[in-house]
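Entry type: protein chain
Record version: 2
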Amino acid sequence: MKLAIVLVAAVAIAAEKPAVWIGPPAANNGSCLREMFEHPDEWKETRSMTDVLFYADHNFQKQFNDEELRAWFAEMKGWKTRLGLEVGAVKEWGQTGEITFDKERPIWERIERLGGKISAIALDEPLVCVRNRLKKPDQYAVDETAAYIALVRKNFPDIRIGDIEVYPSFTIADNIWWIEALNKRLAEMQVKGLDFYRLDVNWVVFAVQNRGSWREVKQLEQYCRSKGLPFSLIYWAAGYPPVQRLGLADDSTWYTMIMQQAYDYALNGGHPDEYVIESWVGAPSQGVPEAGAFSFTNSVRDFVRKFVH
């Protein structure tokens, strides 16, 4: 019976229309996101394709005043676009789940006070932080991330919670172990497990360092689907930073690279449950118009038209 339930859940996930998340670059004091809200008529088609608009919670706090956010959150309600946040869970500045949650909670309460309805949060690579920066055991990451999720579930029970981790610096086996260990710990605490799992793929190293492959990413997608766990994939210009160091990067670099990633994953049979078009590389330099070559909304519109079915 348990197997049948899992299979039914996996089939249901596969049958649903994939969700589209968009995360514009935060460079230049949030100029891209500000453009999108100040000129809503210039990305109407893109917006009709978008399920979730998301941004790092601390950038909402640093970059925009109350008057701006109150007006923008009201606009989002009219658009029926959900709000997502990228958040910490275990960080250098919040080395336990409780410390991180206590620091972030006032930001979320401000968003809600100004009319924002937080639909989902994506944890910004807690396992990466624990392994690579805090240099603590993996079990520490499991325990503190679970503690953080428990606090979110208790205090913000309507928010969907997902985790972001990396590949290929962490193997597919690492990612599967992490999903199972974290969900097991949450079950022991009688707390609901992850609502989605998101992979941040540094895909440029597939060719440059001959390490990793889209075939392996597809294996993780299949694993998640077999568990009834929506698989979420970030599409980004992984080659932008090294090309920028060569003096060759511009907004067209962003556009062509996210398209290349989409072609490559599609050729390997990949079709995530959530397409996440996100930039943290400082490009594109413009948010709108969607009809303007290589703006952020132009890249989203063209990407979704071609790849999301």
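Comment: The two ends are 32 Å apart (CA to CA).
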